[in-house]
Amino acid sequence: MITAPVSRRAARIGAALAVSVLGLTACGGGDPGPDEARSALAWHRVAAPAQHALYLGVTVPGYPHKVDVYRTAGATRAVVLLHGHGGRNWQLAYDLGFNRKLAPQLARNVNWDWLAANGIVAVVPQGQIPPGSTLPVWSNYITDSSQDDVAFLSALAAQVRTQYGVGQVALAGHSNGGAMTARVWCEATPAFDAYFSIAGPMPSSTFPQPAPTCIPLAPVPYAMIVGDQDDRLAQFAPGLVEPTAEQVEAGLTDEVLLSEWGRHRDRSATVCGAEPMLEDRVADAASTRWADCANQQQYVIVHDAQHPIASIEQHAGERMLPMIVDFVGTAIPAKASQQR
After folding, report:
1. Disulfide: which of 14, 104, 189, 240 matches 216 by Cβ 3.0-4.6 Å?
2. How many domains does the chain fold into?
């Protein structure tokens, strides 16, 4: 479970900070139906539907991306979900459990019970295919979709708030989408209320050369989860030194995991002045994790897990979407309580 007990050190920091700071209707084919205009054109607030609704091919003015919106009746928050390199948004919906078939989405194949149990509106945009390629990606410094995806996702978040009447919007992504999640946290932080990266370490504008961790525009919650057997991420940590014996014992067994540990320490220092230490970890049979800034900043390494979402879920013993929702539900209230 990603929301871990706060370590003794983080608890001391968090306590101090708390004082001082901080049934089924669907419309396909891109037409939301007569009672609700396509969100590319409708920015007015509309009443929540009495039943669930699927909107396919929604767009944001000025951007080519197609977006599928799974509007769960009664949901008051949304999660925007970004696919990995070469992925499709319906594939990610399948990986996360709310598309029952590994095929382009149809309303009859939506697992509405799964979404309703998690209490969210799921918003799944499609990344763009750059010229000369056949694979959709995101503009996250590692890949370039030929679109301003930071601006697109910021506009999408604003549209989701206005169009679907939700009070909170989080951003999560897997792999290439996780790296895009990290870039948005750096450069358009206030657009979302929380961020969750799945096997997507934080790159910088100098990639592949290392650079200091970014300074976000606001102290917003961020979590990263990754498997310690992930063999697809070596590109994220070029030129780093090998982990020390002490770091390996703590679960930082390769350059990528060590690099992201450094990013976690920087993020925590920026958000709340915390100084995470190796010994602050909470470890069990499934994972090693650090939770700082009253659980707003989290770094989780899942033992024996590889890159795919299914592998992380298998070895963590939990489904990914509830992990995301759990983090968002814990971190945002913690942030709000610190700010009062």
Report:
1. 189
2. 2
3-state secondary structure 31-89: CCCCCCCCCCCCCCCCCCCCCCEEEEEECCCCCCCCEEEEECCCCCEEEEEECCCCCCH
Q: Is residue 236 part of a domain?
A: no
CATH code of the domain in which 207 resides: 3.40.50
206 shares its domain with 269:
no
Q: What is the pLDDT along the chain (340 residues), one digit of tens a residue?
A: 444 333 333 333 333 323 222 222 233 333 333 233 333 323 333 444 668 999 999 999 999 999 999 999 989 999 999 999 999 999 999 999 999 999 998 989 999 999 999 899 999 999 999 999 999 999 999 999 999 999 999 999 999 999 998 999 999 999 999 999 999 999 999 999 999 999 999 999 999 888 999 999 999 999 999 999 999 998 888 778 889 999 999 999 999 999 999 999 999 999 999 999 999 999 999 999 999 999 999 999 999 999 999 999 999 999 999 999 999 999 887 776 666 5
In a domain, 130, yes or no: yes
14 plus 33 within the same structural domain: no
